[in-house]
Write a structure and sequence with these properties.
CATH superfamily of one domain: HUPs
Oligomer: single chain
CATH architecture of one domain: 3-Layer(aba) Sandwich
Shape: globular
CATH topology of one domain: Rossmann fold
């Protein structure tokens, strides 16, 4: 897909609601060309709810770094049961995961830790896919604030159907569809990743706090180690 086609997609989808955007995508394109992911973090309920309505049974890929909060795993099970999700668990290489654990890599080189446990194991799943649908919401980070609905990145077209969803819109969707919030969001976590790199805080302020790091690397340019 070239730049012109992506510009046209953004024009066509911009005035649609997030739900209508997903409906249009799954109607106009082959389901086999569409990759959907979720971290089952604090804002995951909205995308999971919408996909379950628009494309029931479509695979949801979850990258299990082995460092997730137990309550995140519990929330994944809760949403799976409520929404009838079909989960594909993506696991890091055993040796890579062991190395990052033994060296406590998240302390000295968090970028490499994310690469080994998230980016690298996920790369094979992107092959032969045209679209990657993710649940990114616009927030205070410059990277996400500047995202369009469609972006070409690393050979695949990313779709962010909820990128312009407000906090009020997010809360309303959960309430209207009887989807419970992430338990950690009720404890003061605005965003949730791995246990070692997540603190309480509004928005993404608790992610890699005290460092310049703001993204794990999945949604930015791929960097090899």
């Amino acid at each position: 897909m070239n730049d012109r086609e992506i510009i046209e997609l953004n024009y066509e989808y911009k005035l649609l609601s997030p739900m209508k955007r997903l409906e249009k995508l799954f109607t106009e394109f082959d389901h086999n060309d569409i990759l959907v992911t979720s971290s089952f973090g604090t804002t995951s309920g909205i995308l999971m709810g919408m996909v379950s309505m628009v494309a029931p049974g479509h695979p949801i890929h979850f990258i299990d770094t082995s460092f997730c909060f137990n309550k995140t795993i519990d929330y994944k099970k809760t949403l799976t049961d409520i929404l009838g999700l079909r989960i594909i668990n993506v696991l890091p290489d055993i040796d890579d995961n062991l190395e990052s654990r033994e060296k406590q890599m998240w302390k000295k080189d968090p970028d490499k830790c994310c690469f080994l446990n998230k980016v690298k194991p996920f790369e094979p799943y992107k092959k032969n896919k045209k679209f990657w649908v993710s649940g990114l919401l616009m927030n205070s980070t410059p990277f996400r604030r500047n995202l369009e609905i469609f972006e070409r990145r690393n050979g695949i077209v990313k779709m962010h159907p909820n990128i312009d969803t407000t906090a009020e819109g997010f809360a309303k969707f959960l309430k209207d569809n009887n989807i419970p919030p992430h338990p950690l969001s009720l404890e003061g976590y605005g965003s949730v990743g791995c246990t070692h790199c997540t603190n309480k805080g509004e928005g993404r302020s608790g992610r890699w706090s005290g460092t310049s790091k703001a993204e794990c690397g999945l949604h930015t340019e791929v960097r090899s180690f």
